[in-house]
Amino acid sequence: MSNEYVKRKVALKDMNPCMICSKPATTVLFNQTLKDLIYTCDIHLIENPGFVVPIHSQEYNSTVAELQRVKLQLKVQASNGSGSWDTWVNKIFTKRNSSKDSENSDDTKKDETPTPVKEDQDKLPAIDYQSEYNKLLDKMTELQMKVRNFKLNDNMFQHRLQTKKAQQIAIAKRKKEEANYSNTKPEELEKVFSFPTVPSNDPNKKGQ
Ligand SMILES: [Zn+2]
Asked: What's a BP term from Gene Ontology annotated to this protein (predicted)?
């Protein structure tokens, strides 16, 4: 029995009470190996490890790793100033102004037009990391919304397993009893069934 549930949608006519809050739900988690169904609102599936943990795709995991890397780069850049983002930005502006001054003092006045290009080049690394970070964050959120597979909280899964087992035993028992009823002549029922806790005259009544 594997603890893997797939999220599915059911039609409105098939909705059932949510296991968590009892509101009508059209989302169901289905476990193929256990033949288990859990109706739930979508909201309970988000950041709720007491209930479920999402099983993420490889793409999601690599996006998160990339996000961490870019975040670190942003931090490193910021701390290259005197610690804060503002001083880091100021440093870039100061640097740019001084480079402009040195160009202006040059005798080659013809080259005045390329100056804005140089400014952009100076600015590029900082903006790239920030926009890359935002892009990755969007992608991560999008992949989070797409998750279809979930792992049930361990304790809850054990409980589902036990409940299923008990149900199966009860069903098997009932089938056996039904088979006995249909295969056995009423007068033989007394012999087949024994009701140790029931007074001896009761089984006769049951057989009729
Ligand atoms: Zn609910």
From this structure: vacuolar transport
